Amino acid sequence: MTMSERPAKSYFESKADKEAAAKKSSALNQVCQWAVDNQTGWSLALLALIHGYDVVFANKTSPFVHLQHQISGDAEGRFERGCRDVYYVLYWVVAFTLIRITVMNKVLEPLARWGGVSSSRKVTRFGEQGWLVVYYIISNTVGMYVMSTQPHWLNTRHFWIDYPEGHRQMSSLMKSYYL
């Protein structure tokens, strides 16, 4: 069969080809690919910028680094939820991106190669799955510790004491884990 005898592409095949070509050449796709390829660099730069701002300009009170919405006059130093908590969450998104890529590239992927995994896809997959194991073990252990320091640990009656007002106030440890 020659090129002239080849059947024409269907509507869906040609549409898929056009979408694939547009996706490859779009500026957003290029920016996203750059962000994925340079996770260590941009996350390290952002963390340095945030900590520099905190020390130089914010006098160590930056909402990115420190918990916000402390209840004034509270003897226990408890906190409430508030809209400025989003800054703290954004900081930890960047910090966990750096931690994740560092653990994957410097610990887990070399461990996979040392264990005899030769395919680059399988090494990457091992790193991703290994990170999930590390993350969930640590987060669940910390979560159990945080919960064990609360009055409702193994006593479900405390779920309803001072509800709902009393449940909006939390210790710094609980708020850090909650966020």
- Gyration radius, in Å: 24 Å
Low-confidence region ranges: none
Estimated share of beta-strand residues: under 5%
Count every helix, treating DSSP H or I runs of 4 or more residues as helices. Answer: 6
How would you describe what is shown here?
- This protein is 61% helix and 0% strand.
- Helix 3 runs antiparallel to helix 4 and helix 4 packs across helix 5.
- With 179 residues, it is mainly alpha-helical.
- It is built from six helices and no strands.
- The protein is elongated.
- The model has no long low-confidence stretch (mean pLDDT 84).
List the helices and strands and how they pair.
Layout: H1 11-25, H2 27-37, H3 39-56, H4 85-114, H5 120-148, H6 172-178
Helix pairs in contact: 3-4, 4-5
Short description:
With 179 residues, the chain is an all-alpha fold. 61% of the residues lie in helices and 0% in strands.
Provide key terms for this protein.
179 residues, mainly alpha, 6 helices, elongated
